[in-house]
Structures are given as structure tokens and as C-alpha cells.
Amino acid sequence: MSEGKISKFTTYKFLVLRLIIGGFFIAVGLDKVLEPHQNFLYVIQGYQIFPELLENIAAYVFPWIELFLGLFLFLGLWLKWILRGFLLMISAFILIISQALVRKLPIEFCGCFGGLFSSDIHQTLILDVFLWLFVFLMMRFIAPTSFLSLDKYFSRQEK
After folding, report:
1. Residue 109 carries which DSSP code?
2. What is the dihedral of CA 52, 126, 34, 36, to 10 degrees?
3. Which residues have C-beta within 8 Å of that of residue 128, sequence separation ≥ 6?
């Protein structure tokens, strides 16, 4: 499927996918930002991968990263860079969850979604893999992903 032959229906599917993933990360990030940071800090500590100082930094920073990446994806602003950021972030999530499973850490529920909902760690890993694939597809087919995005208002047009 080349980008030149993508149907209008497929373009709408990419738009819906962009809005759902962006909206999901807006909700998750906003929920974590509004909760006391200790709630997310406790989740991070359960994965036992960072030293104490980095755990605190991650508990403050990651919710904001999720919120802003989600917002920019939802709006379609700087899509190429935002999608790369998503791939990097979701790859990190996959690695963190995978190492916890390999090490058989006593983590029953992921805690990744703040107070919105809880998910089994295995289900979260599967969700993250699908999110990674969807984001990769959006990056691969950037033209339909850019449909109704703000990129056209902020990108430099060559004349």
C-alpha cells in the first residue's frame, strides 16, 4: 500500500487512531499529574530499575511527558517528532515491563494508568506492543496520519 493510493476511508481510520491514542495518553497523563506524585512513585519503585533519585524524577516527569505527547498527537502538531517520542516512550515501557516479568517481580497490576483503571501486567505488555505497532504504522504512513492536523499551519511550506 503506497501513500499515494490511500483511500479516504483509510485516512479516517488513521485520524481516529491518532485521536484515540492521543486522547488515551492525555487522560492517563492528566490523571497522574493531578494525583499526588507519591502514587506513581510507588508504582515506579515496584519495577526496581532506577536508583532512588531517578525514581523521584521519573514520578514527576513521565506523567507530563505522557500528557504533552498525547496532546500533541491529538492535535497533530509536529507529528514526525511526536511519533518518534511515542515509539521511544512505549519501547521503554515494553522493556520495563518485560524485565519485571523476567525477574518475576511481585507486580500483579501494572499501575501504569494512574487511577483510571488497573491492568494485569501481562495485559499491559500486550497493550503496549499493540500501541507500539499502531504508532509505527502512523509514522510509516504520515500523510493519512496528518489528516486534519495542526502541522499544516506550523510547518514551513516550500514555494
Report:
1. B
2. -30
3. 90, 93, 94, 97
Place of cell 500533541: 72
Per-residue pLDDT tens digits for 1-26 = 444 566 787 888 999 999 999 999 99
Cell 514527576, residue? 60
The domain locations on the chain are: 3-146
Instruction: Quote the pLDDT of residue 159.
Output: 37
Contact 55, 41 (CB under 8 A): yes
Measured CA to CA in angstroms, residue 97 lies from 20, 74, 119, 122, 140 at distances of 23, 26, 12, 8, 26
How many CA atoms lie within 13 Å of 149's alpha carbon, on the beta-carbon side?
30
Residue 14 to residue 152: CA distance in whole angstroms: 17
Q: Cell numbers at residue 126, please? A: 500486550
156: left (phi over 0), alpha (psi -120 to 50) or beta: beta
pLDDT per position as a tens digit, 20-44: 999 999 999 999 999 988 889 999 9
Residue 154 and residue 1: Cα distance in Å, rounded?
28
The pTM of this model reads: 0.86
